[in-house]
Amino acid sequence: MTEKSAATPPEGNRILDAIVVGAGPAGLAAATLLARHGQDVLLLDEAAEPGGQIYRAVELTAPGSRRAAILGADYLRGADLVGHFRASSATYWPAAVLWHAAPGIEVLASRAGTTHPLRAAALVLATGAIERPVPVPGWTLPGVMTAGALQILLKSGGLVADVPLVFAGSGPLLHLVALQCRAAGARVAALLDTARPGHLVGALPALPRALAGAGPGYLARGLVQILRLGRSGIPIHRRVEALEILGEDAARAVRFRVGGATREVAAGLVALHEGVIPGQNPARLLGCAMVWDEGQVAFRPQADAWGATSVAGVWVAGDAGGIVGARAAEHQGRLAALDVLRAAGRLEAAGRDRLAAGERRALADHLRIRGLLDRLYRPADAVRRPAGDTVLCRCEAVTAGAVRALAAEGLGANQIKAALRCGMGPCQGRLCGPAVAEIVAAARGRAPEGPDHYTIRPPLKPVPLGELARLA
Amino acid sequence: MFGRLSGDDGEASGRVEIRVDGRPVAARAGDSVAGALLAAGVRRFRRSPVTGAPRAPYCMMGICFECLVTIDGQPGRQACMIAVAPGMDVRTAEGDPDRD
Fold first, then answer.
1. A187: exposed, middle or buried (Cβ count in 10 Å: 0-12, 13-18, 19+)
2. Which residue in the set B8, B50, B57 is minimally distant from A158, CB to CB?
3. Mutate to test the interface with A, among B1, B25, B92 (most CBs of A within 10 A)
4. Which of A86, A114, A327, B15 sits at 20 to 30 Å (Cα–Cα) from A12?
5. CATH number of A133-274
6. Which residue of chain B comes nearest to A148, CA vs CA?
7. Are B59 and A145 in contact (CB < 8 Å)?
8. Nearest chain A Cα distance for residue B45, angstroms
9. Distance CA A20, CA A107 (A)
């Protein structure tokens, strides 16, 4: 790996073989494989350190340390992936922000206050997942964060809540982070589980598939986690509904309904989580066709078995292409890289297929658990399409009710955006986009379709004006 | 709101002094600006330009833009995505109440 300074960027007339965006498992695996095959590959990542969210700061966590013990073996294994990438000839740009990408491939990336125009034959989007937004009353108050945010603070700074902490939502990550925070010394005042017990029955048809490949390993770890949670002493409320966060200038309590009764628990910090969904903005900006995945109740780019999207020269790998988990993401990264080599004429299709066989088997093994997880932890309709005056768009403080009223008149997401300004703030609809699309589709009495979501335009992230001026 | 894990890896990493709304704050090398501010007890990062209500980091991964602060005179910077650097000057909505 060569860490080129901003003074020697691969710009001008030089066309890179490939740009990989995102230094999580999919991006690291893709860039490493491409570099090993002699490709001129640049990996761009917003973070200062490689690993993505799942392996964030893994190089800085000493095996045997207290932090390593809390975060566990599934986290520490990321060090190998990062190590192989570091040892490769790939160029690595940490702290680089992709703010425009167009078919061709042309990319604008900002690094250390300068925007670099880049060109490449191939683009691999390994931009990962975001936590599904959880719009509930009070979610804009300081002191309300995502469970993933708390884990990021633990991984990258050893930071632990020192006020009463309440976890609310559903899914394996919610339980994992609650246990990790408790092991780190946090006082977890309650875990409010919104999962529907009825989903257990609905998930049964997905069980046989999960009993082979890597499935049993996931199931065993999941059972151990459920047992640990039961023994942890954390007060757990199940079948929680109607969650709201109370406070004036900051969160001070949660209120919820359980078993027909309304309860309140004091909280200095509230961690929300309802699973993860693909981050969509880069793929939408590029014009990739997007499909609605009813099993995962989320949009994802349409892609073939190699991750090739509907746009020539653009591949997607890992959670950005549909939630697959960290282990599967690695294999998808290598499969996309092999197809990039085929498209570049570096491999015949037969050679690509031969090299892909092991990756495909491993990928299939790791995907066996997915259907079961998707069914068990399917977020409730009320989370995805909240009622009344719950704020959907945090940037512009637009409520679900206002969006619903315009959707009922037949307006689409872009028209609602123009009328209400939702999705026009700095987050560019990342947090309100999924809910607005679902409300629009529901008003039309059908499942969401790709164009039900806002159109995404550059810049993907705000760029300082001075930087734009220098570019021109 | 946040403390540091005792006996943590990060204890060995260097100290970085930054200024937050004019007062010195000791951060750790490798901290994001948002992490350093949360560790220093900052609860309000910005105010909603629409309602004026206080806001603070929600996602810590560059998605929500609730952690926007002014860094070295440049407004609207994502505190969760930027690493602390010695002498960095950070202004939150508290230190700059007229700012959106």
1. middle
2. B8
3. B1
4. A86
5. 3.50.50.60
6. B59
7. yes
8. 9
9. 11
Name the residue among A24, A85, A15, A108 with its Cα closest to residue A313. A15
User: How many whole angstroms from its chain centre is CA A274?
Assistant: 12
For residue B62, the chain A residues in CB contact (below 8 A) are 46, 461
> Look-up: residue for tokens 């990996």?
A43
Q: Least CA distance to A60: which residue of chain B? A: B9
What does CATH list as the number for A16-130+277-347? 3.50.50.60
Tokens representing A197?
A: 């017990």
Nearest to A394 among B61, B64, B83 (CB): B64
- Dihedral sign for Cα A384, A321, A86, A95, please: negative
Q: Do B60 and A57 touch (CB under 8 A)?
A: no
| Nearest residue in B to A130, CA atom | B63
- Coil, strand or helix: which one is A407? helix
CA distances for A125 relative to A280, A283, A286, angstroms: 10, 8, 10
Instruction: For residues A171 and A325, give the distance between their C-alpha atoms in angstroms, rounded to a whole number.
Output: 13
Which residues of chain A does CATH 3.50.50.60 include? 16-130+277-347, 133-274
Please give chain A's pLDDT, 472 residues, in tens.
554 443 345 555 689 999 999 999 999 999 999 999 999 999 999 999 999 999 999 998 988 899 999 999 999 999 999 999 999 999 999 999 999 999 999 999 999 989 999 999 999 999 999 999 999 999 999 999 999 999 999 999 899 999 999 999 999 999 999 999 999 999 999 999 999 878 888 899 999 999 999 999 999 999 999 999 999 999 999 999 999 999 999 999 999 999 999 999 999 999 999 999 999 999 999 999 999 999 999 999 999 999 999 999 999 999 999 999 999 999 999 999 999 999 999 999 999 999 999 999 999 999 999 999 999 999 999 999 998 899 999 999 999 999 999 999 999 999 999 999 999 999 999 999 999 999 999 999 999 999 999 999 999 998 887 888 888 6
- Asked if the Cβ–Cβ distance from A268 to B57 is below 8 Å, we say no
| Yes or no, beta carbons of B56 and A269 under 8 Å apart | no
Pairing of β A41-44 and β A91-93: parallel
Three-state SS for A199? Answer: helix
Which residues of chain A have a CB within 8 Å of the CB of B11? 158
Interface test with B, best of A45, A127, A156 (most B CBs within 10 A): A156
Shortest distance between the Cα of B12 and any Cα of chain A, in A, equals 11
